[in-house]
Amino acid sequence: MKVCMFHLMPYRDLPADFAQRYKSAYIDPLWFDVADPEKVSQYYNWTLDEFVYAARAGMHGLCTNQHHQNVYGFMANPSLMGSVLAKLTNGQNVAIIQLGSTLPSTSPPTRIAEEYALIDCISGGRLVAGFPTGLPTDATISNAVVPVEQRERYREALELVLKAWRAKEIFAWNGKHYQLPMVNLWPRPMQQPHPPIWIPGSGSATTVEFVVDRDDCFCHLSYYGAKNAHSLGDYFWETVEKRGRDANPYRLGFLQLIGVSETDAKAQEYAPHVEYFFHKLLYTPSYYQAIPGYQDYPSMLRAMKAPLRERFDVRDLRYKDFIERGFLIAGSPKTVRDQLLEGVKRLRIGHLLALLHFGSMPHELCLKNIDLFCREVLPDLQDLWDDQWEDRWWPERLRAKRPAAAAVAAG
Amino acid sequence: MAEVRRVRLWQGKIDTEVEVAGSGPPLVFLHGPWGLPPNRGFLDLLARTHTVFAPKHPGTSRGDPEAVHQIDDWWDLMVYYGELWDCLDLAAPAVIGHSFGGMLACEIAASRAARVSRLVLIDPVGLWRDDLPVKNWMIMPENERRRALFADPDGEAAKRFFSVPSDPDARVEVQAGLIWAQACTGKFVWPIPDKGLKKRIHRIATPTLILWGRADGVIPPVYAEEFARRIANSRVALIDAAGHVPHLEQVEHVGRLVRDFLGP
User: CA of B136, closest CA in chain A: separation in Å?
Assistant: First the structure.
């Protein structure tokens, strides 16, 4: 399997009374009340350093993402981060995973086709092209996308990007949402016909079906842990079977919060940071999440009848609950290893997206987490599936078997 | 009891349900962002003197939610309503529009003056003042929405509006209908319900009655004057003890004002 470092780039030092002052981590927090620009400058640099450290320590890929107007994660343009990472990791066996730019919010979307192609060129063909639809607030509030049009804009934009990457001749695009008179993209991706495509989703049945039909990799970006993703996982693999696709585990990516310490007891050091993550960063009220039209009609009905993701009030939970419920897998290397293996096998996860930085976690603790994870946990995960399955959703020039991970981290 | 007529329009791509009731001169009711209200009391009242046609906005008729993707802008919408008028054999009906439906009624009256005999606007959207922005009803917290829509958020009208059936399947249908109606109407006003009506509104020549709930928490009642000063032949009546849906909260009073305005 492949294990990739995921990072949200959150605000790490929110005031203690943040949750009382603001009803939401999105949209409402005021920059001049909350943010210290000196700190934010530091966060962006720490984030890049943490990624680079993870690459040297043996992680297989680095995942950036796009969010707007919030304290939860504000890599407003992931291509900016990804291009820096591409340069800083040149010559290393690590994928640059843009997970990624949100198509419906970018007009025209050929802009993303160009940025991704550019990153692929800088990285020497190590790009994974992620195409999220975007969170409701990001798309509809921060970028004014009409909610009921978000999905159809997304689909048209994706088609346009793929055609722009592949077309041998200049073409005109006469779509419903985008019209371009002469498309002739410069540059094109090094990877031909195009980089591997990953499509993240948070539980929408329509997205699952769309991704399986397209034969792309689906990444379930749940923050509730493998333990709480059984129904979505089962639905995914049932869909794969129904649509006549093979059971290749690399079809599925999954995000998991992970904290590794020397012992289970020592893992308490992650307690304040995971509570900060769920209580302050993740909290977004339903009126910002369930904007009418954001879900298409069939998905909305399905979610109302039988939600694929269970709903909790995360503010009621504490560290021990997060551990018990599996939101966070934390403890000694052995504990983490055992729980991860159980989770990834149960869900048949090929791409594990490890959230090794979460919440208020300081830089040093994040480096320690990466270091312990890569030395003590990763070696026991990375051979999984490879005796039977090939990762068809990985940059071709990185597919060769790697030497044992980790050694570098210590150095 | 209303008859539900189902018509197929737009090159066979949109099914539209129209509730038809009563007898007398024709009157069209254009619903707001939440679809036709669960309480049809106001429409029943109008049906005593008029033949009331209450069409459902594209995408909100039963069994055809995807129709929302067939109409993409205000120009489409105007041509679609022209087709609907023709299909229902409506030469020049009186038109009542609530909220989003009020904006729609204004656009129809501005672009096709001869096809509207009288115009009633109930808390319409469509104009914008930076100093008094219209609240975005699609992202309102539940408790705030109750207070924005109703002067008495705990009154009978509010209870009726927000009540859901106890049967799980029926409940899903009602809740989904309410959300989807906002999605389908919101398509034409997102993210700000100012789509250029201010440039066209002077073309409304029809006698117009503007009704506004004094406690409207979505659009402040001063907007009544904004509409009135742009529509030559108009007058305003503010409704006490009513929010954004005065025709539900003060059914009798609003019904009487409308009947008096429309005449027999």
Answer: 11
CB contact under 8 A, A297 and B66: yes
Taking the CA of residue B64 and the nearest CA in chain A, the distance in Å comes to 10
- Domain count of chain A? 1
Beta bridge partners of B209: B120, B235
Mean pLDDT over residues A267-283, rounded?
Answer: 96
A150-170 residue pLDDT tens: 999 999 999 999 999 999 999
**Domains of chain B from N-terminus onward:** 3-262 (3.40.50.1820)
Of A149, A292, A300, the CB nearest to B138: A292
The verdict on B179 touching A (C-beta cutoff 8 Å) is yes
Distance from CA of B169 to the nearest CA of A (A): 8
> Which amino acid belongs to residue A399?
R
Name the residue in chain B with its Cα closest to that of A294.
B183
Q: Is the dihedral of CA A18, A21, A24, A29 positive or negative?
A: negative
Identify the bridge partners of residue B28 per DSSP, sorted by sequence position: B53, B95
Could you report the per-residue pLDDT of A342-389, keeping only the tens digit for each?
Answer: 999 999 999 999 999 999 999 999 999 999 999 999 999 999 999 999
Closest CB from A144, A146, A291 relative to B187: A146
ipTM of the complex: 0.95
B-chain residue closest to A285, CA distance: B141
**Residue A364, domain CATH:** 3.20.20.30
The string of pLDDT tens digits covering residues A96-106 is 999 999 999 99
**Inter-residue contact B80 to B14 (CB < 8 Å):** yes
How many CB pairs lie under 8 A apart between chains A and B?
62
Which residue type, as a one-letter code, is found at position A300?
M
Whole-structure pTM value: 0.94
Using CB atoms within 10 A of its CB, is residue B89 exposed (0-12), middle (13-18) or buried (19+)?
exposed
Domain that holds residue A96: 2-410
